[in-house]
Q: What sequence folds into this?
């Protein structure tokens, strides 16, 4: 008989809750549920009321602008910040940021943060007793290029335990923060790695009820971007919600 | 080429604090500078507890109603007013910005700051507006505010404090829940 930490339910309870919600979900949901009790922190942090329809105007139609004054090119390589080499599997994650019409999001900010190879964040409140890596903080930034491509060189993050329920482990992931051309396209999400055995158990990943939609968060191994003797490549494209502003300057609107 | 259906969001989680905040993130203009205003408040959960792991971003026009399209938000001091800022809440759930009061998007319309809210426990970002306090006739003329009842409207209009500061609390849930917004572009 396993001893459960007081206040924490078992994985079986969480998995049954997830299964029940998925069974009752309409096909084709594309975004996570906000009201998703298997993720215990969501119980008090989701609005109970429906979202109100609004037609965007003014500042909502214009994302903030970032440029070379904001981001150094070296900030896209998370492996070079320390005196030595970080520990772990060196990877490159690259892909395109597109809007809902397939247009590239150009020269826009992408921010990432992640745990190290042992599954530990360089954050003072991360209490997971895995080692910190003095050569890895796990934060990066870049601007997309003129065709919407971003690229980061980093270390594959480790899975880590958390206190949602007994024996809860987050699948390995990288947090991504993204801007579009409208402020209404602002989003934060998490990128996962292919075939992670923890997917089925994770209430954050499973808060998206559609398997097809969940798959949009999983990068693909990309052998063409692996570098001989150096690193393994992953490809992950991001599609933002539709934009509202008409972009006269593009000439492709 | 992906299928052009929007990539799902996920929670910001509890560990963004060493990654997203940066020096000057909440000071769109320097604190105490001429014309500046302090916009502040708390982010509350459904039991009225302050949410310590929340992040607010604001996007706004300048005093003339024009929305700046200039870089420099991550390294303040160069380009001037960029119209965008970011503030994480403190352990009590409190946030603040130093900014200027935006002009309206159209002459005579209600002026507001656009806001995005992220938090541990919140599985996707939420959008809302922070309206400046104004004559009731001006607020009545705003299509969104006109669609809300009195309590909901109060939840979206900042309060002018005695010292001139603006106060707006974000209630993620509960009887004073903030109205959160969906835009047409979110439908697919």
A:
């Amino acid at each position: 008989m396993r001893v459960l930490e007081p206040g924490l339910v078992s994985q079986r309870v969480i998995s049954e809750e997830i299964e029940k919600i998925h069974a009752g979900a309409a096909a084709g949901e594309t975004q996570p549920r906000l009201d998703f009790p298997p993720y215990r922190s969501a119980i008090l942090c989701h609005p109970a009321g429906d979202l109100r329809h609004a037609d965007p105007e003014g500042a909502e139609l214009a994302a903030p602008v970032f440029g070379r004054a904001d981001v150094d090119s070296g900030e896209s390589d998370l492996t070079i910040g320390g005196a030595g080499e970080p520990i772990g599997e060196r990877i490159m994650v690259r892909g395109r940021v597109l809007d809902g019409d397939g247009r590239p999001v150009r020269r826009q900010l992408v921010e990432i943060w992640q745990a190290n190879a042992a599954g530990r964040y360089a954050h003072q409140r991360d209490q997971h007793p895995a080692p910190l890596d003095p050569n890895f903080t796990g934060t990066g930034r870049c601007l997309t290029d003129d065709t919407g491509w971003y690229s980061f060189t980093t270390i594959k993050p480790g899975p880590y335990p958390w206190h949602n329920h007994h024996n809860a482990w987050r699948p390995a992931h990288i947090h991504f923060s993204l801007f579009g051309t409208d402020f209404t396209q602002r989003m934060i999400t998490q990128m996962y790695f292919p075939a992670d055995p923890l997917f089925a158990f994770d209430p954050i990943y499973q808060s998206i009820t559609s398997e097809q939609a969940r798959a949009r968060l999983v990068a693909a191994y990309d052998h063409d971007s692996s570098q001989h003797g150096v690193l393994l490549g992953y490809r992950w494209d991001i599609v933002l919600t539709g934009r509202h502003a008409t972009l006269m300057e593009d000439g492709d609107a | 080429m992906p299928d052009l259906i929007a990539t799902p969001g996920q929670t910001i989680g509890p560990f963004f604090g060493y990654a997203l905040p940066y020096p000057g993130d909440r000071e769109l203009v320097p604190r105490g500078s001429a014309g500046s205003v302090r916009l502040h408040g708390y982010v509350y959960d459904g039991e009225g507890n302050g949410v310590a792991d929340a992040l607010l971003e604001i996007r706004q026009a300048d005093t003339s109603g024009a929305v700046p399209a200039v870089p420099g938000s991550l390294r303040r001091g160069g380009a001037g007013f960029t119209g965008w800022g970011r503030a994480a809440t403190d352990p009590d759930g409190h946030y603040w910005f130093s900014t200027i009061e935006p002009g309206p998007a159209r002459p005579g319309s209600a002026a507001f700051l656009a806001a995005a809210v992220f938090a541990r426990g919140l599985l996707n970002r939420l959008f809302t507006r922070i309206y400046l306090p104004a004559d009731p006739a001006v607020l009545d003329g705003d299509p969104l505010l006109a669609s809300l009842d009195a309590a909901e409207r109060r939840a979206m209009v900042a309060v002018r404090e005695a010292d001139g500061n603006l106060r707006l609390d974000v209630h993620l849930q509960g009887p004073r829940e903030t109205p959160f917004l969906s835009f047409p572009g979110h439908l697919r």
